[in-house]
C-alpha cells in the first residue's frame, strides 16, 4: 500500500494552487482590487453555489483508499500533505488536537465534495464547530463538550 500512498502524495503535491491562478485576470488597476474584494464578499454570502473542491484541485475522492486500509503513519502522511495543499488554495482546517488521524482523514476527504470559495483576499475555513455538541461531526472529540 505504501507504493500507492507515494503516488497519492505526488498527486496531492501536483494539486497545489498554481502561482498564477489569480494573475490570469490581468488586473493591474488598484480600483479593480476594491471591486474584486466586493465581488468576493458577495460570493462568500452565496458560497453554496461555488464549485466543489475537486474542481479546483483535480483530486478525486474515489482515488483515496478507505481509512481502514492505511496505517497510522500513512494516514498522517496523507493528512499532512492534504492540509498543506489546501493552504495553497487559501483554505484551512481546524481540528481538535486530540482528533484521531482516521477521523481527520475522512473529514479532509469530504472537503473534496464540498463547495469552497477560493479567495484572493482571504481564507475559507473548515472548523466543524456548530457551537452545539448534539449531533456534532466530531462526536466525543467536539470541543464544545469541554465547555458544557
Automatic annotation (TrEMBL):
This is Uncharacterized protein. It comes from Algoriphagus antarcticus. It comes from the Bacteria.
Amino acid at each position: 500500500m505504501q507504493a500507492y500512498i507515494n503516488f497519492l502524495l505526488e498527486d496531492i503535491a501536483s494539486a497545489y494552487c498554481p502561482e498564477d491562478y489569480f494573475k490570469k485576470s490581468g488586473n493591474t488597476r488598484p480600483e479593480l482590487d476594491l471591486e474584486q474584494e466586493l465581488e468576493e464578499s458577495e460570493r462568500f454570502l452565496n458560497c453554496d453555489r461555488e464549485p466543489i473542491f475537486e474542481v479546483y484541485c483535480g483530486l478525486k475522492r474515489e482515488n483515496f483508499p478507505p481509512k481502514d486500509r492505511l496505517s497510522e503513519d500513512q494516514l498522517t502522511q496523507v493528512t499532512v500533505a492534504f492540509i498543506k495543499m489546501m493552504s495553497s488554495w487559501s483554505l484551512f482546517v481546524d481540528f481538535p488536537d486530540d482528533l484521531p488521524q482516521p477521523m481527520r482523514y475522512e473529514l479532509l476527504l469530504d472537503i473534496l465534495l464540498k463547495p469552497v470559495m477560493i479567495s484572493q483576499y482571504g481564507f475559507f475555513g473548515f472548523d466543524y464547530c456548530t457551537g452545539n455538541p448534539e449531533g456534532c461531526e466530531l462526536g466525543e472529540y467536539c470541543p464544545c463538550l469541554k465547555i458544557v
